[in-house]
Amino acid sequence: MNDILLGSHISLAAPDYYAAAVKEAHSWGENVFMFYTGAPQNTKRIPLDKMRIEEGRALIRDYGMDEKNIVVHAPYIINLANTKNEATREIARSFLVEELRRTAAFGLRYLVLHPGSAVDASREEAIAMVAEGLNEVLKEDGTDVIVCLETMAGKGNELGRTFEELKAIRDLVERKERIGVCLDTCHIHDAGYDIKDIDGVLSEFDSVLGLDLLKVIHLNDSKNERGAHKDRHANIGYGAIGFDALLAYVNHPRLAGIPKILETPYIDHEFPPYEEEIAQLRNGKFVGLSEIK
Ligand SMILES: [Zn+2]
């Protein structure tokens, strides 16, 4: 295995949870990975003492992985921008506090968060609402975990469809040292960026946000054309972005040391593609997936 930090989304499942997740990632040739602490679409979470965390951490050391590159993803139902409903917003805040504490309990430092979605409010108001929520959360959680705001495709009223919107949120956050960014290749392509012009994308990111804020990359192909605002991930080399453009993100010197995480779809909802996709990216050669005829 080389030094490129490449991995995928991994599910935490009973009975061995974190220990099993680390083993699975390693078995697929991954030296980084990302997981949800429970189902991505709800806030039900099993107690930490059942998650086999210490066993998982020991395996991480055994396999020579580095905890600083392993990433947690917050559930996507958290919406700090719900101006309509104070109760919903309060649930989002308290859940995010708990999620940051869980991330710290795993010994990890990055939590990826979808910035939110404007509900009956202007984008400006919604952005201010997200920042206000983050200010409260980051005062309360007592950790030093970094919230990585993700670049979004701009589906519906999603916030974060431009680098400028992420900057606008961060500008209003008091504890700026606790805000980073997760760049999703599918999302920025769907949002309208010219993903194939990697130097253009990186210099724009650098001039708006600063490249030092880029902590995590979600490496996905896209089922849709540039600017479609759809957010449908495709397998590597099977979408509108293509293998070579994605490979450039894997190997670009300015992105060295940043974990690259695949969230590509299971084939026929059944076969995880990650082992083959990661091998091809490491080898720099596209051969396709054996389950896709
Ligand atoms: Zn995400």
What does this structure look like?
With 293 residues, the protein is α/β, with parallel strands linked by helices. The protein has a single domain (6-283), classed as Divalent-metal-dependent TIM barrel enzymes (TIM Barrel), CATH 3.20.20. 36% of the residues lie in helices and 13% in strands. It has 9 helices and 10 strands. The protein has an 8-stranded parallel β-barrel, surrounded by 4 helices. A two-stranded antiparallel sheet has the order 8-9. Strand 1 (6-9), helix 1 (17-27) and strand 2 (32-35) form a beta-alpha-beta unit. The relative contact order is 0.13. The model has no long low-confidence stretch (mean pLDDT 95). It binds zinc ion. Residues 73, 112, 114, 150 line the site of zinc ion (ZN).
Mean pLDDT: 95
Task: Count every beta strand, where a strand is a DSSP E run of 2 or more residues.
Answer: 10
The CATH class designation is Alpha Beta
**Ligand identities:** zinc ion
Biggest beta sheet attributes? 8 strands, parallel, barrel
Number of domains: 1
Assign the CATH superfamily.
Answer: Divalent-metal-dependent TIM barrel enzymes
Residue share in β-strands: 5-15%
Question: Can you tell me the residue ranges where pLDDT is under 50 for at least 5 consecutive residues?
Answer: none
Report the principal-axis shape: globular
Overall CATH architecture: Alpha-Beta Barrel
Biggest sheet: strand arrangement:
1-2-3-4-5-6-7-10
